[in-house]
Amino acid sequence: MEYRKLKPFPKDFLWGGSSSAYQCEGAWDEDGKLPSVQDCKPIEEGNSDWKVCSDHYHRFKEDIALMAEMGFKEFRLSIPWTRIIPDGDGKINPKGVSHYHEVIDECLKYGIKPIITLYHFDLPQALQDKYNGWASRQCIDDFVRYCEVCFKEYGNKVEYFLTINEQNMMTMYNMGEHKDDKERFQANHHMIVAMAKATIRCHMLCKAKIAPAPNISCVYPATSAPLDNLAAADYDQFRNRLYLDPIIFGEYPEALCEYFRQRGCMPEITDEDREAMKAAHPDFIAFNYYGAATVKYVSIEDGEKAKEAAKKAGANREEFMIGMQTEPGMAVSVSNPLQETTSYNMGIDPVGLRLTLRQLWERYRLPLLITENGCGVVDKLTKDGKVHDDYRIDYLRKHIIACKEAITDGVQLFGYSPWSAFDLVSTHQGITKRYGFIYVNRDEHDLKDLKRIKKDSFFWFKKVIASNGEDLD
Ligand code: IFM
């Protein structure tokens, strides 16, 4: 609906920006850190590796000072498990622990609240080698032990922890490279139990609030056909609710359980797992949003054929994506000609953001925090030493208005943390695809001087924050 007047953002609304360690820190083997699975993954052709990234590990003071200049109220960063417990289950690394005390203290010096992601795709490689990572139940206890170190060390200065970033993307795109769906969904279940147990321990050990941080988007049916509408509801269970219902309600969505059973991939759930899932109560929901999904119905037979064809195509990324986005007898994800996209084919859909916010609020009744949303494109450093990123301003403006509309709808939204605070290395498109308010002067392989340059969006966002979201011009 269209309102005549929109409500203002709450007075203490958290404006800021996000990052993840392996994409910005560099220093991949310094101060006792051992490799994570990200450090060991083959690099896509033409892209830079993770060794230096934006060199944030060494330049965090400069970066945080710039965030303070923009007026940030929060900064979302991740702590790599491999800096705190380098091999995942052995000795605690004092240098790693003290580094994040310094980072957190630097944020607090400026009144910026650090929001800490405990896991952002970066499993210790040692655990991958030792027991096949999340496919093993042992990973639950090792993750919880690592989280406990963080709660004890930082819990008296950090107000917000996030357990696992984009668990749903890891499962949907099989980032753990599991051998089949049975193992893939068992690993997913272990992550759910690990989050539940970490949530419980956080509440026991400190006063901080804690939440999951999946990538959530509303799902549109490709047509008004009844079966496409069913596909949209089913895909919502698969894409979104599979990762939120168990941690918030303590139960998997029912229809999806039957679907998994009939496909032979229902995870084994112990009584202890159920108990932890029921006893865990996240304080809020953090979520990343980059555009709505659109699906159409696909029969079991056609879906199986599409998956087989994708498998045969092997390493071809496009075919791989088709395979991963097809759920036989449920839905296939399709592109939406009515949704605008960026040059990297990512959605630009602020209406979808409003709808997503409403659906989350209506379903779970927990306060919401947007932990990622942003415009990843090629930015050009012009001869005058500036970056005129009016497209980013336009993108963010539309999404901030959508947040305001959702707040007017009654949604309890308490922060907006776009991706990313400053330029960092994208997982698939390297540093070429940039999201930040602050330009980092480097190319894919030429590190140049890594100088920080304020983009036009820097000055614009500063104004937005100073006016608490009223001045969006
Ligand atoms: O770079 C990623 C991030 O690690 C997780 N969310 C999506 C971002 C942009 O693609």
Protein model, in words:
There is one protein chain. The chain is of the alpha/beta class. The protein has a single domain (14-219, 238-291, 342-466), classed as Alpha-Beta Barrel (TIM Barrel). 44% of the residues lie in helices and 13% in strands. The protein has helices spanning 21-24, 37-40, 56-70, 81-84, 94-109, 125-131, 138-154, 167-172, 181-205, 226-248, 254-262, 271-279, 300-312, 317-324, 350-364, 390-409, 456-466, and strands at residues 14-18, 74-78, 113-119, 160-165, 209-213, 219-221, 285-288, 293-296, 326-327, 331-333, 340-341, 347-348, 368-372, 413-416, 438-440, 452-454. The strands form four sheets. An eight-stranded parallel sheet has the order 5-4-3-2-1-14-13-7. The protein has a four-stranded mixed sheet with strand order 6-8-10-9, with helices on both faces. A hairpin with a 5-residue loop joins strand 11 (340-341) and strand 12. It starts with 13 loop residues before the first strand and ends in a 7-residue tail after the last helix. It binds 5-hydroxymethyl-3,4-dihydroxypiperidine (IFM). Residues 20, 23, 166, 288, 372, 419, 426-427 line the site of 5-hydroxymethyl-3,4-dihydroxypiperidine.
